[in-house]
Specification:
It is built from 15 helices and eleven strands. With 416 residues, the protein is of the alpha+beta class.
C-alpha cells in the first residue's frame, strides 16, 4: 500500500473534552507514541459527532443578539462551528509569518472518492461524503504521492481559512523540540529545571525533558473539560476559555504564573498521562534556549522555509505568551504540507526542513505498554498509537530517490 496523508478540521468539538480526542491530536510530541495512525492523525482535529443544529452566526451589522458569539460562549456547540474558524476575532493572537517567498503549490489530481463506503458501528455502511456531513467536519484533505486527490470544505470554511488546531499544536511544538535536541541545543536527558529554574519546585522540575515530551510526568492533574473543578479549568482561565475570570477567581492569569503551581504526584516515567501543560513547559524551554517565541520558531523553522500558502497565528494569554498546548491556527492545506514533509523524511521545497532522524523518530512505532499503563482503552493500543511503524525510512538517500513513490504504510493484518 502506498502512503497517503489525511488532514481534517472539525468544527463541532463538543467532545474535545475526551481523552481520546486529545490524544489523537498529540501524536508527534511523544517518543513512546509516535507510530499511531500518524499520517491520518498527526495534524488532525478529528471529526466529532455533534447533535446541535446548524445555525447562522455573526451575520449582519450588527448581528442579531441570538446570533452573536463572544469570549464567554464561543466554545459551546453549536457556536463553536463558527468560532473555531475565527479565533483571532475573539482572542488575542500573534502571527506565524509565512515569509515573502512565493507559495510552493500542492499538485492537484482530484479523484471521485466521496462515495467510497466502509462499515462503521453495528455494520452500518457509511460513505466518505456521509461521514463528513454527519461528523460536522469543516475541512478535509487527502494527499496521495504528495498530490491533493480529495478536498472538501464545509460550514463556510475555505482552502484559505485558518482553523484552530487545538491539541494538534502539540505535534508542532514537539517536532521543533526534537529538532532542537538534534541540533544539540536541548539535552533530552536533563531535568526541566536545568532550562527553566522557575519550575524547580513544580511537578516538572525533576522530570527530564524526554519525560515531558512523552507526557509521562508524574503530576497531580485532571483534564476534564466539562468539569469546572478540573485542573484544566485554571488553564482555561489563563487563556480566557470563557472570557475574563469572575471576581471570585484568585488563581494565576498567565502561563508563566500557572505552570509553577502544578504539583508532583507519582513517579516520572511510569506511564502516559495526558496533561496539556506538558507542552507549555516545552514552549518555555524552547523560548529559553532559542531566545525566541514559539511563533517565531514556527515561522523561521517551518513556515518560511516551506513556503506555505498562508500565515498562521497562535492564541496568546493576557501577557502575550503563546498557548503551546493548543493555540495554533492554520489552513488544512498547510497542515497537509507539514505531514507530507515528515513523510518525505523531513524534506520539502527542495530543503531539509527537519532532520531525517527526527522524521524517522516521529514515524516509529510506539510503546503500547506506556500508553495503557493508566488508560485501559483499546484506543491507545490499536488506534491512537499503532504498534507498527507507519512508514519505512530506512532506505539510503539513493534508494529514497529511486523509490520515493513506493514507501509502505504498515497496517495491522486485518486492515491490509
Amino acid at each position: 500500500m502506498t502512503p497517503s496523508l489525511v488532514i481534517c478540521s472539525s468544527r463541532c468539538r463538543r467532545d474535545f473534552r475526551t481523552k481520546n480526542v486529545k490524544v489523537l491530536c498529540s501524536t508527534a510530541i511523544h517518543r513512546a507514541m509516535k507510530g499511531a495512525r500518524l499520517l491520518a492523525t498527526l495534524l488532525t482535529l478529528s471529526p466529532l459527532l455533534c447533535l446541535a443544529a446548524d445555525g447562522e452566526w455573526m451575520q449582519g451589522f450588527p448581528p442579531p443578539a441570538e446570533q452573536r458569539i463572544s469570549q464567554q460562549d464561543f466554545s459551546v456547540p453549536p457556536k463553536n462551528r463558527w468560532s473555531l474558524q475565527h479565533i483571532r476575532e475573539l482572542q488575542p493572537t500573534r502571527e506565524v509569518w509565512r515569509g515573502a517567498n512565493p507559495t510552493v503549490p500542492l499538485p492537484v489530481e482530484l479523484k471521485d472518492i466521496g462515495t467510497f463506503s466502509a462499515p462503521v458501528r453495528q455494520g452500518r455502511m457509511l460513505s466518505l461524503d456521509q461521514f463528513l456531513n454527519e461528523s460536522h467536519t469543516d475541512g478535509f484533505v487527502i494527499l496521495h504521492h504528495g498530490k491533493i486527490i480529495f478536498e472538501r470544505y464545509m460550514n463556510g470554511q475555505q482552502a484559505h481559512t485558518q482553523h484552530l488546531m487545538f491539541s494538534a499544536t502539540k505535534s508542532f511544538v514537539g517536532m521543533l523540540m526534537l529538532t532542537l535536541a538534534d541540533e544539540g541545543k536541548v539535552d533530552l536527558s536533563k531535568h526541566v529545571a536545568a532550562y527553566v529554574p522557575e519550575l524547580r519546585d513544580s511537578a516538572f522540575g525533576d522530570a527530564t525533558v524526554q519525560q515531558v515530551l512523552d507526557m509521562t510526568t508524574g503530576v497531580s492533574y485532571s483534564e476534564v473539560y466539562d468539569d469546572p473543578a478540573s485542573d484544566i479549568a485554571r488553564y482555561g482561565a489563563v487563556f480566557r476559555f470563557s472570557g475574563e475570570p469572575g471576581p471570585d477567581y484568585k488563581g494565576p492569569l498567565t502561563i508563566y504564573d500557572y505552570l509553577p503551581t502544578l504539583k508532583k504526584q507519582g513517579t516520572h516515567g511510569e506511564g502516559f498521562h495526558y496533561v496539556t501543560p506538558n507542552t507549555d513547559v516545552l514552549g518555555w524551554i524552547m523560548r529559553q534556549v532559542t531566545n525566541k517565541s514559539v511563533d517565531a520558531n514556527l515561522s523561521e523553522r517551518l513556515w518560511q522555509r516551506m513556503s506555505v500558502e498562508r500565515d498562521g497565528y497562535i492564541w496568546v494569554d493576557g501577557a502575550g505568551t503563546e498557548m503551546a498546548g493548543g493555540g495554533l491556527d492554520i489552513t488544512a492545506r498547510d497542515a497537509a504540507r507539514v505531514g507530507q514533509m515528515i513523510l518525505q523524511g523531513g524534506r520539502f521545497n527542495g530543503q531539509q526542513i527537519i532532520p531525517e532522524t527526527v522524521a524517522r523518530r516521529i514515524l516509529q512505532a510506539g510503546d503500547t505498554n506506556t500508553f495503557t499503563r493508566f488508560y485501559q482503552d483499546d484506543w491507545y493500543k490499536n488506534v491512537a498509537y499503532a504498534s507498527r511503524p507507519m512508514v519505512d525510512l530506512q532506505q539510503s538517500a539513493q534508494g529514497r530517490q529511486r523509490h520515493r513513490h513506493s514507501r509502505s504504510i504498515h497496517l495491522p493484518r486485518s486492515q491490509r
